[in-house]
Design brief:
Blueprint: E1 2-6, E2 9-13, H1 28-33, E3 37-42, E4 46-52, E5 59-65, E6 80-81, H2 89-102, E7 110-118, E8 121-129, E9 135-136, H3 137-143, H4 148-164, E10 166-167, E11 176-179, E12 182-185, E13 192-193, H5 198-218, H6 226-239
Antiparallel strand pairs: 1-2, 2-7, 3-4, 4-5, 5-8, 6-8, 7-8, 9-11, 10-13, 11-12
Helix pairs in contact: 4-6
């Protein structure tokens, strides 16, 4: 990972193509001025999809600002206490993604992060490559169900991460992307590498199950059943029986 200084902070980047990024590159206004915003994803806050590169080398990137949640949001929407660069949310996520991507895991290609300090605090943004042709799992299920083989493959995908010791702090149905019969995990904010242990792996899976059930309360016709969950678990167990 490469670093360059900016006023009151740093930009960290992974591929050489990101070396020319500036502070402005981490604002949606920069991309809007260049007519390069191609979409957005709205959750609690907006994530932006932008087009970059020459015509024969075009990529779509995802631009995301780090926002506070929970009780701390009442005191500050996006300021975090600075305890060192490696402990910032953006740098830690970028570093984890770079490691996993280089090891061949199904994660987005990490591009860059900006960490900007002010006093004892910092704000941060991250850019990752958009997974081509992928939809989040809830959006996919809204239109069509998964096959038994796909549920099985999803379970195996999660098991591969768990066997590596990858803890995903927010494993939910919207943080899983599907493209064809392949699955990717996204949003590794607060993720980390842990010693593979049954306790946190089970908790991770239970979090995912709760998210499926929550989405189904919003969309009662969402094609997710107890049988589907068992198909996922069966796929998981083929690679990681110890995690259950």
């Amino acid at each position: 990972m490469q670093l360059k200084s900016i006023p009151n902070g740093v930009i960290a980047w992974c591929p050489p193509s990101a070396a020319q990024l500036t502070v402005d590159s981490f604002t949606v206004e920069h991309w809007q001025a260049n007519d390069a915003v191609v979409g957005q994803s709205k959750g609690r806050y907006t994530t932006w999809f932008v087009q970059t590169g020459a015509e024969h080398q075009q990529q779509q990137w995802v631009l995301r600002h780090y926002w506070r949640g929970g009780l701390m949001e009442k005191f500050s929407r996006d300021a975090y206490f600075y305890t060192g660069l490696a402990r910032t949310r953006a740098y830690a996520e970028l570093a984890l993604l770079e490691l996993l991507y280089q090891e061949g895991f199904a994660v987005p290609n990490p591009i860059a992060a900006k960490i900007e300090r002010f006093g004892f605090w910092y704000r941060a943004d991250i850019i990752i490559e958009r997974v081509a042709g992928a939809k989040d799992l809830v959006a996919h299920l809204t239109n069509q169900p998964l096959t038994e083989a796909q549920w099985h493959a999803l379970g195996q995908t999660i098991a591969k991460f768990h066997l590596r010791g990858v803890y995903h702090a927010d494993l939910n149905a919207k943080n899983i992307l599907i493209s064809g019969d392949s699955f990717s995990l996204i949003d590794f904010d607060r993720g980390e590498i842990k010693s593979p242990q049954k306790q946190w792996q089970q908790a991770n899976l239970q979090r995912l199950l709760r998210s499926f059930n929550k989405e189904q309360t919003k969309q009662p016709t969402l094609p997710f059943t107890t049988e589907n969950w068992q198909q996922l678990i069966q796929g998981y167990q083929t690679l990681n029986p110890i995690g259950l």
